[in-house]
Specification:
6 strands, two-stranded antiparallel sheet, about 15% strand, alpha+beta, 3 helices, about 150 residues
């Protein structure tokens, strides 16, 4: 019996509808005295439009405009180490270009600052960026423009 070369076209199954925003998830924290306390989980947000907005700003370190990237913090309190990149904590840093190492690379590898000073700088950068974003009309709870 000869097989036909005609195949049925692939039809992608319908994607499930997006989940509605609900109550924040809660984690159960167990203390040494065995008391269970419910603690709200922190919601980490991702937003490509917000990252593009941040990357359009000049570098917070050297002030170069036009070569910035959205830099994520390297501290565990901002989600680092849990495979999380939270966009509500990004700030602009310049990328490597034409002989310039780039502040983003130098910052991530602690080339200029010690790790303790880098963490202090990240806290200042996050605070400054969040203030600028609110002034520009961004809602930091949803990372959407108001």
């Amino acid at each position: 019996m000869k097989r036909t070369s005609m195949r049925k076209p692939y039809v992608r199954p319908p994607s499930p509808p997006p989940k509605p925003l609900a109550e924040p998830a809660r984690a159960t924290l167990v203390r040494a005295d065995e008391a269970h306390v419910e603690v709200p989980k922190f919601t980490y947000l991702r937003s490509a439009p917000y990252r593009r907005y941040v990357a359009a700003l000049p570098c917070f370190v050297c002030g170069i405009a036009g070569h910035s990237q959205a830099a994520h913090p390297n501290q565990s309190k901002f989600g680092k180490g849990r495979s999380i990149k939270a966009d509500q904590f990004v700030w602009p840093m310049c990328a490597p270009n034409s002989g310039h190492m780039g502040c983003h690379h130098a910052h991530d590898h602690s080339i200029v600052l010690s790790q303790a000073r880098r963490d202090e700088a990240e806290d200042r950068f996050v605070q400054r960026m969040q203030e600028l974003a609110v002034e520009a009309g961004w809602n930091l709870q949803t990372l959407r423009r108001i």
